[in-house]
Amino acid sequence: MAADAVELLQREIRFSSGKRIYSLLYGYQYFTDRRFALKMRYTNNHFLTLVEPFDAHSETIVSYRHTKAIRQQPTVYLATDKGKWLEIVHEDNVSNDFRINIKVVVYSPALGPPVRRFRPA
To answer: Based on the structure, what is the number of domains in the chain?
Structure first.
């Protein structure tokens, strides 16, 4: 998570009530085999935050599958110029690369040209 991610979430949370999920839309995938980072927009990423009143029925975000959480609770999407999370894609989690990237249409290489378009076959 970015150093300012918690501060950003705390600012946003002050103005809401009830149970909500917060999604930091933009982050980076770093591919260890290619030594390449991509900035990406991913709504139901692995870094969702659940905010709710604390009581006997409280849950945590791990109570939800990240791929379905945004359909199960009201969700606030936070878009920022810079990515707020980093996912490391290595040989052992190559399924994340396939499952996530097959849905992504616009890539922005973190260390390269501003925008590159990719359309899966």
So the answer is: 1
